[in-house]
Amino acid sequence: MYKVYECSPSVTAHTKAYMTINSFEGGGDGGAPAKCDNRYYSDDTPVVALSTGWYEGGSRCLKNVTVRAPSGRSVEAMVVDECDSSVGCGKDEDYQPPCANNVVDASKAVWKALGVPPRDWGDLDITWSDA
């Protein structure tokens, strides 16, 4: 049994989060099209999915957030999807377990913009805020 969450930590000017990598392309590891607009996005586009609580029922859809790496580099990325913390393991989630409540699931473009070497892509402690 997996832990599930309906809420996330409060959003501040420097909200602590755990960044993971995801492909939002058709046939990518993200599964279904983005929840905000039912589209797929190129890995070269800076987009993110937020944990259920931060996604706020879609209120952040198609809005930008600022993602900051420990190095101090930052990038603006558009919220296009929910990293569902309340369900998982189904077809729409590409059979992946539920997200934790503090995840920013980011495209390769976000990782590149933050200057993270590809060998280190996957998991990174970051901060983020509404742009």
TrEMBL record:
Report the superkingdom from the record. Eukaryota
Q: What is its main location?
A: secreted
- Compartments it resides in: Secreted
Query: Which keywords does the record carry?
Result: Secreted, Signal
Note whether Lyase occurs among the keywords.
no
> Per the record's keyword annotation, is Nuclease included, yes or no?
no
- What's any one GO cellular component for it? extracellular region
The family note in this entry says: Belongs to the kiwellin family.
What protein name does the entry list?
Answer: Uncharacterized protein
User: Which organism's genome codes for this protein?
Assistant: Cannabis sativa (Hemp)
